[in-house]
Amino acid sequence: MNAITLSTPLSEGEVRALRVGEEVILEGLIYGMRDRTHIEIFQYGKEPPVSLAGYPVLHTAPSLRRVGEKWEKVIIGTTTSARMDRFAPALFEKYGVRAIIGKAGLSEVSLAAMQRFGACYLALTGGAAALETLQIEEVEAVYWPHLHPEALYAFRVRGFGPLIVAMDSHGASLYAQVRTAAQARLASILGQGADA
Amino acid sequence: MKNCGELRRKTLPDAPQTSQASPLVDDNETPDWTGLEAAGARPRSSVSLPNEVVSGVLPGIDYELVEEVAKELYIRALKELPPDVAEALRRALQRETHPTARTVLKTILKSIEISETNRMLICQDTGLPLYMVTAGGPWALDGCRLKAALAAGTRRATLEHPFRGSTAHPITRDNPQDNLGQGMPIIYWDFAPEQDYLEIVMVPKGSGSENMSAMEMFTPADGLGAIKRFVVDKVVCSGGNPCPPGIIGVGIGGSFDSVGLLAKKAIVRPVGRRNPDPMFAALEEELEDAINRSGIGPMGLGGDTTTLAVHIEWSYTHITQNPVAVNNQCWAARRARARLWPDGRVEYGF
Description:
The structure holds two protein chains of two kinds. Chain A is built from six helices and eight strands, in the order E-H-E-H-E-E-H-E-H-E-H-E-E-H. By secondary structure, chain A is an alpha/beta fold. Chain A starts with a strand and ends in a 6-residue tail after the last helix. Chain A has one domain: Fe-S hydro-lyase, tartrate dehydratase beta-type, catalytic domain (fumarase). Helix content of chain A is about 30%, strand content about 35%. The radius of gyration of chain A is 18 Å and the shape is globular. Chain B is α+β, with helices and mostly antiparallel strands. Chain B folds into two domains: about 130 residues, CATH 3.30.1330; about 120 residues, no CATH class. Chain B is built from twelve helices and nine strands. In chain B, strand 8 and strand 9 form a beta hairpin. The radius of gyration of chain B is 23 Å and the shape is globular.
């Protein structure tokens, strides 16, 4: 499958054009956040020091080394999205985030918000941190560094992916499709042998 | 901890007195050793185990070496994926027909190659540090010093490499940044008299998959069907969270606590090795087939490969119960193994 290359910031039109199952490669700036970063914004009411409008947010797990004023990458991976699910709709609505990059997907509530505000979920291959680290060219900035490793990160990426469009702005979710099909198969899979 | 052996030797002569402090002994009761003496046993106070004699008869171990090995094992485990796991992933790609699943498997294999070439960590999650120690016999082993050496090795690997501290206080969430803290590292002990070496297996257990683990107490009447449904349901409901396709470790039997350890031992077994019992080997194959036919696929995005292997470990249980545990292991099924001989020889493997 040919991957679609997109440069950030993303427009609503670019995101609305994406459909589940498509592959995407990202170029440019993406923002990394995780549990504490979201809590800082949504529970403590701290405004992010940069505009997130149009940018993808990566559910990041960064291991960095501080060298003078610069932050150097050690290993940067991606964490399970479900823990940050509750904050996704507000990221789309209030901050104009166009995509969330993570692993294992978000809830139906977040899916509905993607449809309403023109956003999508891009699945990254979890555990493939070595590749991901090479595709992050530079840690451009670390905002709220006192929260590291749960700060707000600006990553400059090159050839970032392949990412799979797993939830789109048209109400489709690959995770839901796959799970529904699996559950339907379960009865026949375990079949008669189940009570042997 | 380093003086553990000395401490033991010093307190031995006072053993009957100090045992009064034990909650198992009534404060007013003076331990009576006469019965034991009459039966030919000696009270603990007169047991003498001078180190010189022990080391003259039984092989000993260098605890500084154990510390080095513990450190080395943690780093190796994070950087070198066991060849059986990598091979199983390659074979999965050969069989896989689903386009998205092929993309994910290729990404996984590419990342493994990059981590090998650049000596990078495979995954950023340095996991919970877990050591499985199997002591052969006969050895003169000081368990306290061995335990301290494993903890020191864990800390040194974390600080000297350095890599992420992944352990946290369960309530305050304080992270000591050295992968220690109360109860860390997790250590399981076993003994194998036929083995002439000390074996240490290190597993940095990633949380994405560990969080998707579960146990259930079934009744005897629930039968085998309930076990199968529980395992397959757990995998299907977990979707992409445990980073499939990995190893599904299943524990059957035992008690509430031991069934979890059985499942943990199951994920440590190399891929491609079946349970030696034909009944359980057949069940492993059946569950593997069922899970892969579910279509959950790599990272939960659909495909023919949901697991690389189902491994079952089992034990007898109570007549009223049938505990079952599922320990999920991600595709980055990391482990490192070392064997230590009394002459100081160390062999590393998986």
